[in-house]
Amino acid sequence: xxGSDESLAETFWAVTRRLxxxxxxxxxxxxxxxxxxxxxxxxxxxxxxxxxxxxxxxxIAPRSATEVIDGxxxxxxxxxxxxxxxxxxxxxxxxxxxxxxxxxIRQARATEAERFFGALPPEDRAELTRILRRxxxx
Length: 138
Hints:
67% of the residues lie in helices and 11% in strands. It is mainly alpha-helical. The chain is elongated. Residues 5-137 form the HTH marR-type domain.
């Protein structure tokens, strides 16, 4: 099959798989899953969140968010603490080590993304960004 027989969806999924594999390679030094890296990134961008709010940001079930939080907490990257606004509730926040690892991961992912998309000229990158943002909104 020479690519011309490949559907748009097949091409998109092939590119997605390639990007996912690159992301896993980029995360390997920290022995962190892509889901954990995403959660850590959300917490770094938004600050301490309740587990349910983190689940919403990640678009995953609350039970799945608990598993992600547990894994990050075991590695010392996040901590659970009482919510000062409601002592019955819990907040999840990155630790100092979580901030350090999160910043290193963000840099590694940016480097990988630059390598991945760097083959495209700037105008194609801008067009691809526009198209993907539009698809994300629908």
